[in-house]
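Hi, does anyone understand the following?
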Amino acid sequence: MKKSVYLLLAGALFFTACKKTEEEPPKSLYVRLGGNAAIQAVIDQFITNVASDTRINIFFADAAADPARLKKLRDNLVNQVGQATGGPEKYTGLDMKTAHKGMNIQEADFNALVEDLSKALDKFSVPMTEKSELLTALATMKADIVEPSTSLYNQLGGNAAISAVIDQFITNVAGDSRINAFFADAAADPARLMKLRNNLINQVGQATGGPEKYTGLDMKTAHRGMGITEADFNALVEDLVKSLDKFKVLPKPKNQLLGALAAMKGDIVEGSTPLYARLGGNAGISAVIDDFIGKVAADTRINSFFAAAAADPARLMKLRNNLINQVGQASGGSEKYTGLDMKTAHKGMKITDAHFNALVEDLTMSLVKFNVQSKAKIELLTALGSMRGDIVGQ
């Protein structure tokens, strides 16, 4: 009897052992998620979710704007998830701490990212167990992704980095024919250009939480009468963006800085103002012309052309009024010029290019004396330049 019991027990143990041997090993998370194809689908949806998530999409703005960079990001994510879940993929990107260094990602940003991934998993009906395992794996990276809160000033790189960006910005503006006329006077005066540079550095430093102190004029006063339009402002923003991109400023601080600039738009943009108004109307034009006549009278290079008028008060007054009316009408004012056309008025005077250039110099000095803004000054001098063919060589 005992022998029969032993045989039964042995048989039971044998069959139990066979059963355990025949059971399949636990499936990896990779397999349970559906392998590479399923992971790709989830990652694609995750990227779409992030792109429309205004809480965090700024972190991915540069990648989103570059198809090659976006594809690299996507492939890295697929490979990272594949490798982490037991698949054959190999992640070859940067470690998480290095990849996110300086991005100033906060806990709220990380949580938003987790939400976007969770939504992607839910769209493809990933079971709760697998979803929880994957999100837990992401949670273990949190310490390497989230950074302590830091000021925009530090995110930008402090004074040295801001100075480098501003220097490049000034270079960009100087080469931008859409707006460099506004800065022509400063560009021609090293001391004034240095003051502008330092003001910009201090303004950005102070606005972003640095120790710098901006002591210049408020934006409305500084730009009053310049006639800056929305197109001019947009060109300025473009030049700043190019500077930030050159120094690889990360999307979030770049966006914050551009947001601060956008907040000043209402104090900078005046809309399209006629040249006449920017010159100061009739009173401003009259003052410039009176000073110009005085300079020409003292300029030995060309005063002989005006000697007859200078000796006759009535004729000099007529010349003065003609000049005021001519500038007024040409710049959009209500004045009416009734004098001779330029070709007829200068016929036989044998005016050379050198004489014409001397005249332009005298007018420029008068405009500078009355602080006529760069763009308005250039517009007026350009109008005079268009008359050169009718004045020189007659």
Notes: Residues 14 and 87 are 35 Å apart (CA to CA).
